[in-house]
Design goal:
Layout (H helix, E strand, L loop, with lengths): L6 H9 L9 H15 L7 E2 L1 H8 L3 H14 L2 E4 L3 E4 L4 H25 L2 H19 L3 H18 L3 H16 L12 H16 L3 H13 L7 H14 L1
Antiparallel strand pairs: 1-3, 2-3
Helix pairs in contact: 2-4, 3-4, 4-7, 5-7, 5-8, 5-10, 6-7, 6-9, 7-8
Length: about 240
């Protein structure tokens, strides 16, 4: 957290100080910091200083360190060697460019996977969907994100096209960094999102190549059946800005 961090976030730390004297302190610190990122109290580029947060909350550095590690795993914070952790800066334009590249790859991967996927691979996808559901129950968005990315990586492998698989391996780290896959700031029903992945597996299991291709493409582009509250909020914000 930068020395000139917003007064709003400093006030939030002071207000929540007494909450952090109970068990599972790291979980509570995680929720506080994550909400600060979502709300913009911690802005892109802000440094997150573990010692300062621990001091202001009246807790040891250990639970703060665990919370910061979890947020970094989710892609909300990035670690810069010898400098510390910072809130990730991602432009909406860069994220959109990444989604544009992801969509046709997901469409092709699903179309081919519906024709070539094996029973063992389907079982692996089922297991990943269950991991997503358990992650939702445990409110572990990092675990959800890991399972989600493994899910789409496995579909690319199930397509049976080595070149497509290599392309996915090349772009997947960028998709993860730009939150163009498994966005940790998704403002919708995470349980419904896990179920949506189950529906995608069903299309592959049925061998419905065209249906799977369209569904995976919509999913990749954010047009799937599970709404993101941010999508509804954005037009209102743009209209307000115009007014």
């Amino acid at each position: 957290m930068a020395a000139n961090a917003s007064a709003g976030f400093v006030s939030t730390l002071a207000t929540n100080k007494d909450r952090f004297r109970k068990a599972l302190i790291s979980d509570q610190v995680y929720e506080l910091l994550r909400q600060a990122v979502v709300d913009g109290d911690l802005a892109p580029g802000d440094r997150v200083v573990e010692s300062e947060i621990a001091r202001r909350l009246g807790v040891s550095q250990a639970p703060v360190r665990e919370a910061v590690k979890q947020l970094a795993r989710e892609g909300l914070l990035m670690h810069v060697p010898r400098r510390g952790h910072f809130v990730v800066e991602i432009s909406e334009q860069d994220a959109e460019y990444a989604r544009q590249v992801r969509e046709p790859l997901e469409r092709l991967a699903a179309q081919l996977a519906a024709q070539h996927i094996t029973k063992d691979q389907l079982a692996e996808l089922d297991a990943l969907v269950e991991r997503m559901r358990k992650a939702v129950d445990g409110k572990d968005m990092g675990a959800f994100r890991d399972a989600d990315i493994e899910f789409h990586t496995l579909v690319s492998q199930a397509a049976g096209n080595p070149f497509l698989e290599r392309m996915w391996e090349v772009i997947e780290p960028s998709l993860r960094t730009l939150r163009a896959i498994s966005d940790p700031l998704f403002a919708g029903d995470w349980s419904a999102m896990a179920d949506e992945h189950g529906r995608l597996v069903g299309l592959l299991r049925d061998g419905n190549a065209e249906g799977a291709a369209c569904a995976f493409a919509d999913h990749a582009a954010g047009r799937g059946p599970v709404p993101d509250a941010r999508a509804a909020k954005k037009p209102r914000e743009e209209a307000t800005a115009r007014d």
